[in-house]
Design brief:
By secondary structure, the chain is an all-alpha fold. It has one domain. It has four helices and no strands. It starts with 12 loop residues before the first helix and ends with a helix.
């Protein structure tokens, strides 16, 4: 399970970290009305996590029993509220990048098909 977050392309680690911070700044930073940087990312995430717990009415329970004694369902609700925005936006950004890279290839493939059709008399 430790390799779950391992990048398929290790050279992309720095770029992925920049993307994470950029998206976190757009989402988390907007929610907290602050600029998100590598230096304050973890602190901002922790702050938003507690805010989400409070919004869901779980803050007192966490303070009473601790995070380690919360159910996975309870913690998942908080994580979904915090990380869901960031993760979802990262996926949108990555899909957009992939589409932009694929567009010229798709255009070229379409042109080859058109040329082949013309050569066949179609």
């Amino acid at each position: 399970m430790g390799d779950r977050n391992k990048l398929l392309e290790p050279k992309a680690e720095e770029a992925m970290e920049r993307l994470k911070l950029e998206v976190a700044d757009e989402t988390l930073g907007r929610d907290l009305n602050t600029r998100i940087t590598a230096e304050n990312y973890e602190e901002a995430l922790e702050q938003r996590k507690w805010e989400a717990a409070e919004e869901l009415g779980m803050k007192e329970r966490i303070e009473d029993v601790g995070w380690e004694n919360m159910t996975t369902g309870e913690v998942g609700k908080i994580g979904g509220r915090v990380g869901g925005k960031i993760g979802g936006q990262m996926v949108k950004e990555l899909v957009g990048m992939a589409e932009a890279q694929m567009a010229p290839v798709a255009e070229e493939a379409t042109d080859k098909q058109a040329v082949a059709a013309r050569l066949k008399g179609g």
